[in-house]
Amino acid sequence: MDESAETAARQALAKGERRMVLDILMRAYGDLLYRHCAAMLRDAALTDETHQTVFVQAWRDLERFKGDSSFKSWLFAIARHRCLDALKIRRRFFKRFEARETLPDGADPSPSAEAKLAHASLGGPLSRCLDKLTPEVRSAVLLRYREGISYTEMADIAGEQAGTLQRRVARALPALRACLEAQGVASP
Amino acid sequence: MKCDRFAREGSLALERGEPLDPHYASCADCAAALRAYRAIAGDLGGLAADAAPSGDWQARVHARIARERAPRRRWWWLALPVAAAATLALWVTRPSPVTLGLDVQVLPGPGQARAETPKAGDRVAIVATVGGEAAELRVYRGDEVLLRCSDAPPCARAEGRVSAEFVLPGPGRYRTLLVVGEAAAPSGGLDADVSAARAAGARVHLSDEIAVW
Ligand SMILES: [Zn+2]
Question: pTM of the predicted model, to two decimals?
Fold first, then answer.
């Protein structure tokens, strides 16, 4: 957590300087949240869109920010919702349309077409295995191990019991191991 | 037979921050599972480490906020079944012998009711009036070109009009661009493409944004 940014943002919020708060938060957490969304979504265009939406929503919700969590946790909670929504909408769309030929040429919304992955580190077997987890599980795994967020904080972010999240992650990693091995990636 | 005690119990103990009992060190299967667990946890930490937002993303956030604060246009009634071809805001940079036009309508997807706001699966019907001039239609999602055509499918050209239909694939901010005249290939995103087309002497129409959440 960026303590000086948290303090500066709190002071700006107390003065009603919403734009300044937003700028501070974008500077402090913009890259971090972008990478989190990129790992969740694995789709460069969808990541750009969702990431910006997180901060647009933060702007909208700032007035309701109570200050009982850090701005960082609060932003991660928004990002978690927006990423899960983005995945839900995309999945619904593919269910409806994947079997039809309604897509014009040049329209390729394929969710994990490797060509659309702008980020090299998301093309590997670990990413592909993460994709096989449900979005909720993937979210918990990434919050824990990509972001290094504690279960107490994660419970806040996800609005779930820490124990539930611990069980989810504890089951997911052995599943990832099995998936990696099935892809021919040897265990260390 | 392989011991799976680590996957059943050890991983949860680890996540709870509890000490691991000596079994996990002495049992070869569990020790391997524990090593793999730690390796995967480490690799997860480096995931997407090279990903970074575009240089102007903060400006884009501010632009979206500014647009949101402007009075919202109620757009959906444009989707009336009759081709009440209402022209969404466009700009014309130069007068033309033919009145150029770009009509963009959002229609519900198959079997879908019309919603208050556009959603994934809705169709976008595009009709551009271009007379006898060379013209190209493009649909952008952000800076990404999702559709690009002029005379051939998915575009159709007849009686001085170029039309196309497009299904909104998912969340995003979509804009339709009509380039009349010589169109350079898309390269650097919407704003850059508009400037390039103008610089090449083409006329450019840009539809309002269709936002899908
Ligand atoms: Zn064992």
Answer: 0.63
